[in-house]
Amino acid sequence: MSSPQAPEDGQGCGDRGDPPGDLRSVLVTTVLNLEPLDEDLFRGRHYWVPAKRLFGGQIVGQALVAAAKSVSEDVHVHSLHCYFVRAGDPKVPVLYQVERTRTGSSFSVRSVKAVQHGKPIFICQASFQQAQPSPMQHQFSMPTVPPPEELLDCETLIDQYLRDPNLQKRYPLALNRIAAQEVPIEIKPVNPSPLSQLQRMEPKQMFWVRARGYIGPELESPGAQG
To answer: Is-annotated flag, keyword Hydrolase (predicted)?
Structure first.
């Protein structure tokens, strides 16, 4: 497989200062660049497989990109309902079939089916809306949590775990395998707990999550996101 190409230095970087050619940036940009096969039919490939099955976030992201390619740039996604129906096979690409369920003057609805081996592994419905002010607010309030700049990312936490002789003895293979991965997503847990206390954790976790490195202006713009 040929190496995916990243944008050249200085093109579209803006003021972020992130090196566009680093491996993690390449992973993000390539995984979200779908190959058009026909009208409303796309193929997505995998450049990062963290386990024996596909990463669910990758499937959601690719499906949303496929849906967004079938709407105009002046609408933005405001609702997304997803269902994982089968485990994804990392050995083969994923086909994304987009159905233009409705195209209205203010709202548009797209249904996306991700298919492998002739069977759906994921389905979703995305609703797009023209940007307009509204007095209605439906989302939950942002919880009071420390900003991401004050938190440790998962790689740093894993490094701390590896320095613990007890944890290193209990989980040597798992910790070293995680530490060796080139993960294109940065995750910072808000309240990380030692591995020895995992059984006593509350059934609730909060994270700061973002893509690592440069993702390109076309993926940063509101129209491309929606």
So the answer is: yes
**For the chain, where are the alpha helices, taking DSSP H only?**
23-31, 56-68, 154-163, 165-170, 172-180, 217-220, 222-225
Residues of the chain with pLDDT under 50: 1-20, 219-226
What does the block give as tokens for 59? Answer: 């499937």
User: What's the CATH number where 41 sits?
Assistant: 3.10.129.10
Strands 207-211 and 185-189 turn out to be antiparallel
- Residue 217's pLDDT is 59
pLDDT at 60: 94
DSSP-assigned letter for residue 136: -
**How far is residue 50 from each of residues 46, 126, 191, measured CA to CA in Å?**
11, 26, 23
Same domain, 115 and 192: no
**Predicted pLDDT at 105:** 85
pTM score: 0.63
